[in-house]
Amino acid sequence: MTPEVGHYALVLALGLSLIQALVPLYGAQTRDVALMRLGTSTAIMQCVFVAISFGALMTAYVTSDFSVANVFENSHSTMPLIYKFTSVWGNHEGSMLLWVLILAVFGAAVAVFGANLPTALKANVLAVQAWIACSFYLFILLTSNPFQRLARAPIEGRDLNPILQDIGLAIHPPLLYLGYVGFSIAFSFALAALIEGRIDAAWARWVRPWTLTAWMFLTVGISMGSYWAYYELGWGGFWFWDPVENASLMPWLAGTALLHSAVVMEKRNALKVWTILLAILAFSLSLIGTFLVRSGVLTSVHTFATDPSRGVFILCILIFFIGGGLGLFAWRAPLLRQGGIFAPISREGALVFNNLFLTIACLTVFVGTLYPLALESLTGEKISVGAPFFNLTFAPLFIPLMFAMPFGTLLAWKRGDIYGVTQRLMAAFGVGIVAVAAALAVAGVQHVLAAFGIGLGFFVIFGAVIDLTERVALFRRPLGTSLSRAVGLPRSAWGTAAAHAGVGVTLIGIVCASTWGTERIVAVKDGQTVSLSGYDLTFDGMVQRQGPNFRELAGRFTVSENGQVVGALSPSKRTFSARSMSTNEAALLSRGFSQLYLSLGDANADGSLAIRFYYKPLVLLIWIGTLIMAFGGILSLSDRRLRVGAPKPAKVKPTLQPAG
Amino acid sequence: MSLWFVFALMTAAAIFAVLWPLGRRSAAEGGSDLEVYRDQLEEIARDRAEGRIGAAEADAARIEVSRRLIAAADAAESEAQRSEGGPVWRRRVAAIVGLVLLPIGASVAYLALGSPQLPGQPLAERRAAAQQDNSIDTLIARVEAHLEKNPNDARGYEVVAPVYLRMGRFADAVNARRKAIALAGENAQRQADLGEALAALGNGVITADAKAAFERALELDRNDLKSLYFIGLAAEQDGDRKKAAAIWMSMLKDAPADAPWAPMVGEALTRVGGVPPKLAEVAPAQPGPSADDIAAAGQMSEQDRSEMVRGMVARLADRLSQDSGDVAGWQRLMRAYMVMGDRDKAKGAAGDARKALAADPDKLRQIDETIKSMGLDG
Question: ipTM, 2 decimals?
């Protein structure tokens, strides 16, 4: 009975979303309060029904109800319980159900927490949200129904793809979807504003928490995906510039730009048109990401099913929303009143600089990801745009961006004092230069680029620290005053500093791990020892183990440093008989922020075993940095007070430029 | 609680979500941008009090925000005049949509997509049911589950292999046979079984792998009957009819009078033109060619012989068109067509057989397996 209840709940959610897509919109046009308010209750009820639906599918997975075709195809009764939960979204149909669940949760959150919104705006936002929901309910019910039934339940299921049988599946997809789908709210706000034809500083204030939430989840989602790929795929890489990764990076870049331009809009009532455009783009890129991954255009571990009808359906959704959004934008945007004008050297000038570079970076990724696909579909020619392209284009964009970051936070609104800011940043410069010198001294002059990378990372981190010390006037006022100021400092200031420092931390991690990482690929025999970067790895033989639904052949290794045993590593190869597939489980040993990474190759005929042994210095900083960034987002989100920029009165008019 | 009762409750909840806001008559209570600007003004005052911004900047900011505030207040006033509640018919239409269209639409969509007649079948319930269910699928699943937990149990593989073979899961059968050899060590019988599975996997052709297995079996026991038979078959397939006949002849010579395999080998021997000893006793159980036919066949030229075979096949086909329930007959007919290289006719026979046996699921399954094993499906 349970699966059918879930199925019917999904159909009811579709019905409610249709009503919600039309009635509040009409209500907002005719200013009918009752009709506008309808969106609130239907959004909440929609969420309840999708939750029931999701719960029903989850129940089917946990109880191994193979009369549900989706469960039969992606589950196995001997799987550990945690994977029975996670395999709900470890397949196409279930992951789409998770997608709409998160969409419905966000819709209900706007309905519940949006009490401070004007009724008409809220009605329009919920209506647009319902349009999106409606199209995805239809997509699920018509092309990817997880509630298809089998009349005679097979005895055993086909098991979940072994690569996905990992704790990473519990973390990465839900976080990533929270990010992707979170941008739908910014999109709905933008469209609602365009429909109403009214956009002002307050709009930016209202949309800010939603954008920030989505951005946070997306940051952590991408980062956890990267860590998962790092330890599961067995190559020790953390970012591959794989199209699927790029698909998630694009909305992140657009979302980061949106976050910053919305600040300008809120404080200075400027950049309005641009902000709206970014809000549309961020979600459009999320949809493109979903399309690329789900349509089978790209083949990877993320592509669960390649069914042309699904691809066409998602493409239609894509065209409808991106085309509709941009069309509405082209029609309405010229009607929007432009905001203030401002000087290039100012906080808002710096934010424009940030937006420019982030958008170009986003465009670069877009071209690098889609150009090979377009070329292949048009001419059949296969080209590969890999890491070299992105490294060459991305670094020149991000280096100036990161260098400008500390300046931006220190510049005053409206008209900044670049000399004053430079003086105040002297300490950070100093730290950066010391870091460069230290790196050169330790690693030698051949690593000059890497040394400058580390210097830049330290400059960014200490720039963020100086931003805080300046605001609390540390060392310039008595300590007590500084402390009380620190307490009074808005949380969003702490959040900004944390997020920016996080970027610096990540940069240092990337530079160190990719420059000074060492590796050895050797064949070892029982008792043999391999040395790498001061660590000795001794092979103690193989052991056969039996897991719940797999068998594994694990190598036992002892790691010692200077003769002292510091740990053991046990990488393994797992064989999953249900799918006749095997996976490679790397073993990791953390030493501070650095990691030793060991994965198994093939056993040779002479009894020796091929291994890949890596030393990754400071590699953990990459992910710690992103967590710091997300933590900054949380701090900022917890700031309930509204901040306002204090524009300096312009005594002498500086050269002015119009703001977009 | 029946399924339909739950559906009714859910539908009622959905309708309630639509009707509830329509019934409330209170005025608009949403927030407005006025609050945001008032907050911003307060913020400026707070910053000024803390000395965080200068007097001039604070004034400029205050003026800027005040302008927004005034504009927003004007807008809110005109808004309030416009939204004095709409005419009642709008709400009535919305109510009708929720009350009528929603349940009807949801029911129609669900009945088109859903399967309300199917109960959920969670593992626990299926297990209980499977205790009584001794169908071949269940038994295989049980053995497989056992082997999953005890992957070193050679006997398990030996039990399940012939079942796989009978079900047409030849690749699984080969795997099981290989595992059995790896775990329990090789002997003539295990090698011969492996060869048999490999031959089945090759659609009856004795592949190089299969031949190697039989030869290994004969090395271990030069009298292994199964291997001898298949080696003969291999010789026949290689076109060496004399060798095949010699092998089978020697088998029959040494055979006890009541050997159950003798008719089969005898049949094979006559196929390659040999004359089995004591043919009368080992006469084929199935209605095949009579002894006279075969004796005649020995004298015939190649062309005549193939004509005779054609005649026999035609007779069989004729008989099956009368008595269509004979599974073995259908199987032989399809094989005959295949041997004659007439794939289309074999396919036709497969289709006829399926039609003829449609009423009997058990027989239909048997015929389907044969069709699959010959690669005739699809």
Answer: 0.85
